[in-house]
Amino acid sequence: MFELGEGLYAAYEFKRAIYWWHRATGDADAMCWIGRCYYNGFGVKEDDTKAFEWFERASGCGHAEATYYLAGCYVEGLGVEKNIVKSLELYVKAAELGEKGAAYELGIIYHCGRCGVAVNKTEALKWYRVAVELGDTFVQGAVTKLEAELATA
After folding, report:
1. Among the four residues 99, 100, 109, 131, which has the most C-beta atoms within 10 Å?
2. How many CA atoms lie within 13 A of 10 on its CB side?
3. pTM, rounded to two decimals
Protein backbone atom coordinates (compact mmCIF):
# COMPACT_ATOMS: atom_id res chain seq x y z
CA MET A 1 0.00 0.00 0.00
CA PHE A 2 2.95 2.29 0.59
CA GLU A 3 3.93 2.08 -3.07
CA LEU A 4 0.41 3.03 -4.17
CA GLY A 5 0.57 6.10 -1.95
CA GLU A 6 4.04 6.92 -3.23
CA GLY A 7 2.80 6.90 -6.82
CA LEU A 8 -0.12 9.12 -5.94
CA TYR A 9 2.19 11.52 -4.09
CA ALA A 10 4.43 11.74 -7.16
CA ALA A 11 1.31 12.65 -9.15
CA TYR A 12 0.54 15.44 -6.64
CA GLU A 13 -2.52 13.59 -5.38
CA PHE A 14 -1.56 14.12 -1.77
CA LYS A 15 -4.92 13.40 -0.13
CA ARG A 16 -5.23 10.07 -1.93
CA ALA A 17 -1.62 9.21 -1.05
CA ILE A 18 -2.29 9.86 2.62
CA TYR A 19 -5.43 7.73 2.42
CA TRP A 20 -3.39 4.71 1.29
CA TRP A 21 -0.51 5.38 3.65
CA HIS A 22 -2.95 5.32 6.57
CA ARG A 23 -3.90 1.81 5.44
CA ALA A 24 -0.27 0.67 5.32
CA THR A 25 -0.43 -0.29 8.99
CA GLY A 26 2.98 -0.49 10.61
CA ASP A 27 4.86 0.66 7.48
CA ALA A 28 7.57 3.06 8.67
CA ASP A 29 7.97 4.57 5.19
CA ALA A 30 4.26 5.41 5.13
CA MET A 31 4.48 6.94 8.62
CA CYS A 32 7.42 9.09 7.59
CA TRP A 33 5.65 10.33 4.46
CA ILE A 34 2.49 11.14 6.39
CA GLY A 35 4.70 13.19 8.70
CA ARG A 36 6.20 14.99 5.71
CA CYS A 37 2.72 15.79 4.43
CA TYR A 38 1.73 17.32 7.76
CA TYR A 39 5.04 19.20 7.92
CA ASN A 40 4.57 20.69 4.44
CA GLY A 41 0.78 20.95 4.39
CA PHE A 42 0.48 18.60 1.39
CA GLY A 43 -3.03 17.12 1.26
CA VAL A 44 -3.67 18.09 4.88
CA LYS A 45 -3.54 21.25 6.92
CA GLU A 46 0.06 21.99 7.96
CA ASP A 47 0.45 20.74 11.53
CA ASP A 48 3.85 20.54 13.21
CA THR A 49 2.50 18.52 16.14
CA LYS A 50 1.05 15.83 13.89
CA ALA A 51 4.22 15.85 11.76
CA PHE A 52 6.28 15.32 14.90
CA GLU A 53 4.02 12.47 16.04
CA TRP A 54 4.29 10.66 12.70
CA PHE A 55 8.06 11.13 12.55
CA GLU A 56 8.32 9.81 16.09
CA ARG A 57 6.28 6.70 15.20
CA ALA A 58 8.41 5.96 12.15
CA SER A 59 11.62 6.65 14.06
CA GLY A 60 10.49 4.18 16.71
CA CYS A 61 10.45 1.57 13.93
CA GLY A 62 14.07 2.36 13.08
CA HIS A 63 13.36 4.59 10.08
CA ALA A 64 16.50 6.63 9.37
CA GLU A 65 14.90 9.50 7.44
CA ALA A 66 12.12 9.93 10.00
CA THR A 67 14.73 10.01 12.76
CA TYR A 68 16.53 12.78 10.87
CA TYR A 69 13.30 14.79 10.56
CA LEU A 70 12.52 14.14 14.22
CA ALA A 71 15.91 15.59 15.17
CA GLY A 72 15.06 18.70 13.17
CA CYS A 73 11.77 19.02 15.06
CA TYR A 74 13.69 19.07 18.33
CA VAL A 75 16.15 21.67 17.01
CA GLU A 76 13.40 24.02 15.86
CA GLY A 77 10.76 23.20 18.45
CA LEU A 78 8.31 22.02 15.79
CA GLY A 79 5.49 20.11 17.44
CA VAL A 80 7.64 19.60 20.53
CA GLU A 81 9.60 21.69 22.98
CA LYS A 82 13.11 22.51 21.75
CA ASN A 83 15.67 20.04 23.06
CA ILE A 84 19.13 20.38 21.55
CA VAL A 85 20.58 17.42 23.46
CA LYS A 86 17.81 15.15 22.16
CA SER A 87 18.26 16.48 18.63
CA LEU A 88 21.97 15.66 18.66
CA GLU A 89 21.25 12.14 19.91
CA LEU A 90 18.73 11.69 17.11
CA TYR A 91 21.08 13.03 14.43
CA VAL A 92 23.68 10.49 15.55
CA LYS A 93 21.08 7.71 15.57
CA ALA A 94 19.85 8.69 12.10
CA ALA A 95 23.41 8.74 10.74
CA GLU A 96 24.08 5.34 12.29
CA LEU A 97 20.92 4.09 10.58
CA GLY A 98 22.32 5.32 7.25
CA GLU A 99 20.80 8.78 6.78
CA LYS A 100 23.40 10.85 4.92
CA GLY A 101 21.58 14.12 5.66
CA ALA A 102 21.99 13.53 9.38
CA ALA A 103 25.72 12.87 9.01
CA TYR A 104 26.07 16.06 6.96
CA GLU A 105 24.09 18.01 9.55
CA LEU A 106 26.40 16.74 12.31
CA GLY A 107 29.37 17.86 10.22
CA ILE A 108 27.89 21.36 9.97
CA ILE A 109 27.09 21.44 13.68
CA TYR A 110 30.68 20.64 14.63
CA HIS A 111 32.22 22.72 11.86
CA CYS A 112 30.27 25.86 12.76
CA GLY A 113 29.72 25.31 16.47
CA ARG A 114 25.92 25.14 16.25
CA CYS A 115 23.45 23.72 18.76
CA GLY A 116 25.65 24.71 21.68
CA VAL A 117 28.48 22.47 20.49
CA ALA A 118 32.02 23.85 20.44
CA VAL A 119 33.70 24.09 17.04
CA ASN A 120 35.55 20.83 16.48
CA LYS A 121 36.87 20.51 12.95
CA THR A 122 38.18 16.98 13.50
CA GLU A 123 34.73 15.84 14.56
CA ALA A 124 33.19 17.78 11.66
CA LEU A 125 35.50 16.00 9.23
CA LYS A 126 34.51 12.64 10.72
CA TRP A 127 30.82 13.31 10.09
CA TYR A 128 31.40 14.79 6.63
CA ARG A 129 33.29 11.60 5.73
CA VAL A 130 30.39 9.50 7.03
CA ALA A 131 28.04 11.53 4.82
CA VAL A 132 30.25 10.81 1.81
CA GLU A 133 30.38 7.10 2.69
CA LEU A 134 26.57 7.15 2.81
CA GLY A 135 26.43 8.61 -0.70
CA ASP A 136 26.40 12.39 -0.24
CA THR A 137 28.58 13.55 -3.14
CA PHE A 138 27.87 17.23 -2.42
CA VAL A 139 29.93 17.24 0.79
CA GLN A 140 33.12 15.87 -0.83
CA GLY A 141 34.37 19.43 -1.42
CA ALA A 142 34.04 20.21 2.28
CA VAL A 143 35.97 17.03 3.12
CA THR A 144 38.83 17.96 0.79
CA LYS A 145 38.97 21.54 2.07
CA LEU A 146 38.82 20.54 5.74
CA GLU A 147 41.45 17.82 5.31
CA ALA A 148 43.82 20.39 3.80
CA GLU A 149 43.07 22.88 6.56
CA LEU A 150 43.68 20.32 9.31
CA ALA A 151 46.86 19.10 7.62
CA THR A 152 48.39 22.59 7.87
CA ALA A 153 47.21 23.23 11.41
Report:
1. 131
2. 6
3. 0.93
